[in-house]
Design goal:
single chain, about 625 residues, mainly beta, Immunoglobulin-like, Deoxyribonuclease I, Chain A, seven-stranded mixed beta barrel, Mfa-like_1
Length: about 625
């Protein structure tokens, strides 16, 4: 077997790296007389086959490993013996001895790898196969045929052989940054080559001569080579380098098609060869996926995926201290901004961004922001501010078309949830997440809940559902007119368990020929909306022991009032699909405490409802009184 080594500063798909060495390895008890000291000639340089140039001084070689065997001929070229590597270790130079037979007095020719099927063949009629399918679970380079020639006797009675590579070697460095394949487990890598309409054979059966390295194909060959991983898949968390041998038949201008497959995605791109291939050369393939204009990404259902983005919705609890003495204040708001800036969401919707906006915006140095409408300057009248804020990355995201709309209905007066102290409503932004990929984003802050009952006989509920319908009608009309997807995000102050969201949002949008989904329902509720007019499903960090609430198994199964819905227009060019959703308690926890309750109702991780339970757990306290809802989307076409 052969492992490969590299001295470039990259992560390699091998267990360990070795420096090139020309030191002979000891025979470990075997007489040195008759030994063959096999030295692999390192390629003179490396060349870039596709993409941006890579420094050709990065030395890369192939090393002998334990268990390797070579076939050796005498000067006649008709008598062959098998020699096996002796000693432990991996290096570019190793010693080989005849296996169970008398060694040649004057060995002349050799080849690797030894094959029993070649034992009766002459030095000029050896047969080999460069496989088109190669499993890489053992990190072993396959199809790396070499031929060797004795150069001189050694001082201890052995012979030194210099081995040369029969074929070319491709060094493929995969960087999945900025694509859905990032952090996925690699399952296969396929390289195909074509010239016009015809495939270029880079694998297959052949015969070769160990005298001079000449070789001839014995079949039509295969125009692609696929590396596979079944049990030892590497992760595409950072740059990953793989190697493959291939016939040196590629010409400058030939078209490479490179396909990278993970558990959930397949990426494919094409690029023309920058050079003609030769034996004994290593060719670089810098596969930085998102740099290739021809890149196409597909999900496991075969839908074309063009990329992904992540967004968050958070109530920053920024009312002035005269109204909200327990809020995060200046320092806490700055901490929230620092955390969001570090996490790097593509865009963020915030609500209650009043008194401490400057601290929030100053901390978010990587973001642009929408209109700030001011703080609450009076507690005795309606203030002309909605407290909404929208932030988007300075690099990679653009936002236009800010539209600000106030709700027609509100209830609660100046003190009841500040519902009529501020001009609650929603905003519409046109967000470009990538070239040609435009999404309508709606951010909102709705009326609070109070009173008795979960029907519209409760004036608080009536105001909330009126606002939801107003937002729904606007979004639906825009989606049908613009024919592009939409995201609704923000503090709705609503729960499926106490508001008829399905009746007033989900069903009407669907009846208009659109699709709408809640990522929390998709990922944490098994696709089933919670039943209306039932006990609230509380995350652990917001449970207070109320008998009307159910304590959920974790901070993800529980429902929060911060929502995110996404809408697709079926015949639109761009489609959205949520790929993850979480209540981000971890990053926004300021402190923790032990919470203990008895006689409470609990929902376990399987969805079973357990009554009269005693529980004790670590409860997270956030900087604000909300934790953000964070959703990642992929967009397809």
């Amino acid at each position: 077997m052969h492992n490969y080594l590299g001295m470039a500063a990259i992560v390699l798909a091998v267990p360990i790296l070795f420096s090139c060495s020309t030191d002979d390895l000891a025979g470990h008890g075997n007489s040195p007389r008759g030994q063959i000291v096999a030295h692999i000639v390192s390629p003179s340089d490396t060349r870039t086959a596709v993409g941006d140039a890579v420094d050709g001084t990065n030395a890369v070689g192939v090393v002998w490993t334990d268990g390797d065997e070579i076939g050796v001929f005498d000067a006649s070229g008709n008598s062959q013996k098998r020699y096996a590597k002796v000693g432990q270790g991996t290096a570019a130079t190793a010693s080989f001895v005849a296996s169970g037979i008398t060694p040649f007095d004057n060995p002349v020719y050799a080849y690797y790898p030894y094959d029993e099927a070649n034992s009766s063949h002459s030095v000029h009629s050896l047969a080999g196969t460069l496989p088109a399918m190669q499993n890489m679970d053992t990190h072993t380079l396959q199809g790396d045929y070499k031929y060797g020639r004795a150069t001189a006797p050694t001082s201890d009675g052995g012979y030194e052989f210099v081995f040369r590579h029969l074929f070319s070697l491709a060094r493929i460095t995969i960087d999945a940054t900025g694509t859905p394949l990032k952090d996925e487990m690699l399952k296969s890598l396929r390289v195909s080559v074509s010239r016009g309409e015809a495939g270029v054979p880079i694998a297959g059966n052949f015969t070769f001569s160990a005298e001079d390295g000449s070789w001839t194909r014995t079949d039509d060959g295969e125009s692609s080579i696929t590396l596979t991983w079944d049990t030892n898949s590497p992760e595409l968390g950072q740059a990953l380098t793989c190697y493959m041998s291939l016939f040196p038949l590629v010409k400058s201008g030939d078209l490479f098609t490179i396909t990278v497959s993970t558990e959930n995605y397949q990426a494919e791109f094409t690029a023309n060869s920058l050079t003609s291939f030769s034996p004994e050369q290593i060719y670089n393939f810098p596969v930085v996926l998102d740099k290739y204009e021809t890149l196409k990404v597909y999900d496991k259902e075969g839908n074309a995926v063009r990329g992904k983005f992540t967004c968050a919705a958070l109530n920053v609890d920024g009312l002035p201290s005269i109204i909200n003495s327990g809020g995060p204040g200046s320092n806490g708001t700055q901490s929230i901004g620092n955390i969001m800036n570090g996490l790097g969401y593509d865009f963020i919707a915030v609500s209650e961004d009043f008194e401490y906006h400057s601290q929030l915006a100053d901390a978010m140095t990587s973001y642009n922001s929408g209109t700030y409408r001011g703080t609450v300057s009076s507690i005795s009248k309606l203030n002309n501010t909605d407290g909404l804020g929208f932030f988007w990355k300075k690099e990679g995201i653009t936002t236009t078309g800010e539209t600000i709309i106030s709700f027609n209905d509100a209830y609660g007066g100046l003190t009841g949830g500040a519902n009529e102290l501020i001009a609650k409503g929603f905003r519409h932004y046109v967000v470009t997440v990538a070239q040609g990929v435009v999404v309508d984003v709606y951010i909102t802050h709705m009326n609070t809940y109070s009173g008795d009952g979960n029907t519209e006989e409760n004036a608080w509920v009536a105001a909330q559902l009126s606002q939801l319908r107003q937002l729904r009608d606007y979004v639906t009309a825009q989606a049908k007119e613009n024919k592009r997807p939409a995201i609704i995000m923000g503090d709705t102050n609503m729960r499926y368990t106490r508001h008829q969201i399905e009746t007033n949002l989900i069903a009407p949008v669907t009846s208009e020929g659109l699709t709408i989904a809640d990522p929390w329902v998709e990922f944490h509720r098994g696709g089933v909306y919670p039943t209306w007019d039932t006990k609230s499903l509380m995350i652990r960090s917001k449970f207070g022991g109320d008998s009307n609430d159910i304590l959920c198994a974790d901070d993800q199964r529980g429902e929060v009032v911060d929502k995110m819905w996404y809408i697709n227009v079926p015949d639109a060019a761009i489609q959205l699909k949520a790929i993850s959703c979480m209540n981000d308690v971890e990053h926004f926890t300021k402190s923790t405490e032990t919470a203990s309750y008895s006689g409470v109702t609990v929902e376990d991780a399987a969805g079973n409802i357990l009554t009269n339970q005693s529980v004790s757990y670590t409860k997270a306290n956030g900087y604000a009184d909300h934790f953000p809802v964070v959703v990642s989307f992929e967009y397809t076409k």
